[in-house]
Amino acid sequence: MRRLCSLLSALFICGGLLMAGCSRPPDNRESSSGTASSPRDTSTAGSASGTSSASAGSASETTESTEGVKTSPTTKGKTSAATKKPTTVSTQNSTPPGVRNPLDTKPSGETAGLMAPMTSQSDAKANAMRDGIRKAKDTLKASGTTYYVSNTGNDNNSGTSPSHAWATINKVNSWDYSAGDVVLFNRGDIFRGTITAKANLSYGAYGAGDKPAIYGARENAAGAEWKKVSDNIWMINSYVFNDIGNIVFNHGEAVGRKKLQNTLTANYHFYHNKETGQLYLYMDKGNPAKIFKDIELCEKKNIIMISDISNVTIENLCLKYGGGHGIGGQNFVNVTIRGCELAWIGGSLLFGTTRYGNAVECWENCDNFLVENCYIYQIYDTGITHQGEAQNVRMKDITYRNNLIDYCTWGIEYFHRNSSALMSNVLFEGNIIRFTGYGWGNQRPDKSDASGIKSWGHPNRAENFVVRNNTFDTAFFDLFEFLAGAGVSNLPKLSGNTYVQKLNKQAGRYGSTRMTFDEDIAQSMKNCSMEHNPTILFN
């Protein structure tokens, strides 16, 4: 969950409103070469994007305390990383960002449920939606110039044809575009880096095959040199000085478990010293590079940053392995995200022990914001969200429709903490939200807040807010939470929705009414004026 404030704002919030949380985007700074690390972030909070702390009732809550995992100072696996200096990392995986490294791999088959495979009554419908999203046609047409990016390209090329394509995201970020230009990435290719979106510009795909993949991780760390430093403890010099929020092994066969101290006691526990760049991993099976073909280090950055801009479309891109947000920013107008796949995102520290992040996020003002036909899964925090806390913010003409959201902690989240803010003309329609709370974010300490849709107890002033024809299926805790401290008139109007949950589990809250998912749930929804003709299915 979270967003973007300036550093001054972050300091103010962390100093004066720590318990209320803060939203900021991660620092997406890169070196001029694109291969070295960004400037070191030595602050506790970093410049991250997340939302609120547990006491405020907002999203990226605190990380697991090391106190709960046998933090004995005499553990054999304990090493002292703080005193070590970075040494030369193996160069076998050092390829310019944006250029396909032969070590880079793509997942085979569906990876969303590898960690905790689940089934439900919405499987057939969800599978059809997923297939349709992955096969979505490219529709972007330039009114200006079309630029092409390919693993076989060269940044010295003109970029204006597939045969003269650019090669790197650095080139994409550095170019001076005109209004109506389009940037297209070659399907089937893998690019590494982060995109800083520019106004009046569209980003999409060309060619045939899988959606072009943009990995936030700088390299496949299975190609790096892992050194055994003590019993079952392996270390690499990652060259990453932004906080690493997660490690994903073989595209979801396993994930890391972040520790804030370098006392590691079980497989996949990891500690990242962002001062030195060194990363420590507990693995009793041997050298991680020999066990896994793909190891992705997810660092604190948005894969695509969209802030203070207008007229941007992002279509048919596959965005994975970032520790911040997938696509996130603040104060934007006319932004469309469609046909994208976003996965394995979040986990980096926002401030203190509070962690990121969301697949798609708007922080504070937004006008004409559309997210449609996207497949989103395995997000530490939320699939899609708009949220904020400043005075007099306006969030209007917001539509989330026909998205498949699996294995996130929250499917859709919305809120605003300030009573002067207003959401208007908001529509959630045709989405399938499943298995919330059952993804890798289940390692978080506040897993009991997981739900299909989440609003928290903030004022949440709203006008013309509609939630219709969605499927909310099998949540770890609540299927839904619709709250508005400003009064029941600010709650959304619901119709045509389908609810699937195990008998006698939590259903959720609508205003002051909490409901259990029992034989009387449909009547309970009618009694509190939530929804009069819901479809109820027991899983």
Topology of this protein?
Blueprint: H1 7-16, H2 123-134, E1 146-149, H3 169-174, E2 181-186, E3 190-192, E4 195-196, E5 201-206, E6 213-215, E7 227-230, E8 233-237, E9 244-249, E10 254-255, E11 257-258, E12 269-273, E13 278-282, H4 288-291, E14 295-299, E15 304-305, E16 310-315, E17 318-322, E18 327-338, E19 341-345, E20 349-351, E21 354-355, E22 360-372, E23 375-379, E24 382-388, E25 394-401, E26 404-406, E27 410-416, E28 422-429, E29 432-434, E30 451-454, E31 462-468, E32 471-473, E33 480-482, E34 493-495, E35 498-501, E36 505-510, E37 513-517, H5 521-527, E38 535-538
Parallel strand pairs: 1-2, 2-5, 3-6, 4-15, 5-16, 6-17, 11-12, 15-18, 16-18, 17-19, 18-22, 19-23, 22-24, 22-25, 23-26, 24-27, 25-28, 26-29, 27-30, 28-31, 29-32, 31-34, 32-35, 33-36, 35-38
Antiparallel strand pairs: 7-8, 8-13, 9-10, 9-14, 12-13, 20-21, 36-37
